[in-house]
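Handout, section B. The chain below has 534 residues.
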Amino acid sequence: MAFVVCVIPRDGVTLLPGETDNISHVNTDPPAVTIQIEDPSHANEQLDKKGGLPNGHTISGNGTIGHSTGEDNPSFSPEGEAEAIPRDTDSTMYSNGSVVQRGSGSGGSSESRPNGCHHQCSTMEVNHNVVVTDSEEKRKEAEILAEKAREETSEDRMVSLVLKLVVCLLCGMVMGLALEKGRVFEPRSIRCQFTYQIWIMMKMFLSALATGLLCLATLSVLPFTKRAFEEARIEYVSCISSKGILMASIGGMLLGAGMALAGACPGMVLAQVGAWAGQGSGLVTFVGALVGSFGYAVCHPFIDRSLGRSTPYKRHLADDWVSHVPFALLALVLAAVTAGIVVAIELWRPWRTEILTSPAENFEPTWFMTEYAWPPYIAGILIGMLQIPLVLLIRDTLGGSSSYCTISSQILITRRMEEAVPYLAKFKRGLSSWWQVFFVTGVILGAMSSSLLSHTMSKVDGVGWGVSFFGGFVMLFGARFAGGCTSGHGISGVGVLALLSFIAVAAMFAGGTVIGLIGWGMGKAEVIDPFCPL
């Protein structure tokens, strides 16, 4: 008596219920086999690692499984899902996760088999859900069913992809709205933060961090969100695993210096584009940032060889060093401290004393969406809460500088160009890259909508175009050097307690402070226009 076992991969995995080995033996004599085939063309390699097939069985490169002896090898071509029946030694096998009956040689009863089982076939081919038999009619039926299943799977994936991208766009619009209403996107707010004359940016930043910490701590303990949080945390660490303390420090200082020069950051410049700040200076900064991302990509091989780590740190996270303290507890403590600092700064410097009068003439707001300004800590809370949908749907955290790499990578139109700039080419495709493009597009749209509602479109002062372009270049070069920007390192990196992010944020403020104080001094000496107009 001889058997042919049908194994139909489902999503690359076929396992017997309750069994986890790559090769699971059904209780028959001679034994049938089922195989986990992630790629049928490499099935033999998988089998070799497990000692090969039992004697008398063969497998071809395309997934054909058969018995080399005997004259009545039955094969199966399921036309529909069979009703699950108990597993026994004579009548069942598992196919595509369900239980179907099988024949047992010439002595088997054809009535006991599901539709599609027949007695006199010699082989069964399995190739990614396409089941082919010696019967032309059955082959066509199986191909039609397989094609329908592929179409349904493709449609499901497309719906899921569209949903995720729409959510990213909406999240970006919320961030753009918050940046514009919080007035933190104004070049004045950013430059004067680095001279420590205006604290709007600090209040927004620390509020977003505290809220993000609270959200991430909650996601890390809830049973139905814990896995998503862990995956997002792993994803973040993988993005900075090749960076060391030196790269985080140098990159952070360059990022801060560029921010002070341009009066922007990789996220806020998008709001400047949407609100048309400085009569287009925000757009110039954005173009400079794109050029900066390309410039870093060209220099990356040399930088990585010189300063990168070939062996990543074994402990990237704060809770790796204090393993007896859970992440949630550390995050909540840091959130409480951060929130306390925001309260203290607000009591010292109330936000209404730091904003300018609305430039909208003869316009009276009628509801909160038409208000010129919101408290910066409200804007920060909205931004911090965006961690929840991004972690649950994208398995990633808030960030924006990678989107510049994705956008600039589109000029690599040939494979030779991609091979010439491999760092940039890896951002060209895939949801992991493109979700940020939708997110930053949303930021532009959100800021545009907010400024239109408050009648402040194109009424915010900017900086000179030359300084804007150079500042944008340095800013993005530094962000990619350090492996993240103000939102990536500052809100998400610190939010997941990545130690390199603490270093990068400190370096960012150091670099920005140096340029800010130099600019302030030159402005006081009337060498340049006032660096930080109050």
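Note. The beta strands are 23-26, 32-35, 57-59, 65-67, 92-95, 98-101, 125-127, 130-132. Compare this with the example in section A.
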